[in-house]
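Practice problem: predict the structure.
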Amino acid sequence: MKYIKNKEDRNSILFYLANLISIFGTAIYTFAISLYTLKITGSSISFSTTLILSVLPIIILNPFVGVIVDKFNKKKLAVIANALNGIFLFTVYLISNWKGLNLGTIYLSTFVITSINIIFDISIDSAIPNIVSKEKVVNINSGNRIIDSISSVLGPVLGGVAFAAFNIETFILINSISFIVSAILDTLIDFKYNTENESKEMYSESITVGKLNYFKEIAEGFKYLISKRYIIRILSIFIIFNFFISFSVTIPIPIILNNILEIPAKSYGLIQGGIPVGMIIGAFVVKKIMAKYKLNNIFSAVGIVMSVNIILLSIPILFKTINNINVYIMYYLIIMIFMGICISLVDIPFSYTMQTNIEEEYRGRSISLTISIVKVVVPISYIISGILLQSIEPYIVVLFGGISVLIISIIFFKYAKRLYN
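Answer:
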């Protein structure tokens, strides 16, 4: 990296490489270890338990990790997190060669890796405004979104290939090495590039993790967050969008595609891949859109487009007159791509707003609390949608969600100017 003279460009490239290795490593590991669990147990419950254990720590630990990130050096935390994942997986590799890989070890490793990754994710997300200039924050968030989207598509594919090509022990060793490489790359990033002066460095060497009053610190972070009226209003619409996408798309659409329209499995996978493809497209165009329009106007417009997309998802069920299955496949694929674009046009501006409008000493807690709130709201929407689908037609749930987003987006647009008051 010495040949890259511009320190900001060097930071960006190192950031992308480190995240690419870390995110892909986690996505591939989670999928492959889940397949292995299914293979050795033959139980769908064990399979789903492994996936749940990859999400549960995010809800439980995020607020506490936010406190740690705000109180300690973000670079050290990011490096230590990746290094710990590498060391832990190497330990799992040794144990699996010695005693074999049992279900308890799989559950433990999944929980531990996800927990450690939370430290890395929040440390990196809250440090982005320090790694590059404010003008490049959107760029780096867009790049990160592209990496996330590609990993969501290729992670299961590469996980399946790795599962077939290697025994599980070798795969664990390779993943261990990838985390160590990511940690080394993190050490080369200048986390103070955009810090005005070192006197603003607020980390204290005298503080230890055990001495922190976590609940007090979380309460202070929450108090600070709700004092930012603009952030709270943007957060509210962000949460509403997440709720209704989960409510009217994530749960009912698989039922519509698989059970009602009887889309073939391969074609169903193609349709599902439309969202990450759309998210990549959205990540490429979001900066130009943000340069022309205010955030509240973007949210309103995207909300209206998103609501139309959701409503369109129910149309083939209302007017089932086409017998050509390929028409349905293309129809739903196009809608899913547009849904993905909408998601990027909400997620990236929201991340930018959080990173650039929250003071550094509260940034970790604010980001972690936001993620926790969204992660709690989404399962609630799953439950409500699932209960409703027991007694009413899926297209009604989809229509209700789409119309709700449309009404909320119009109201938000009408009163958007008040966000700045």
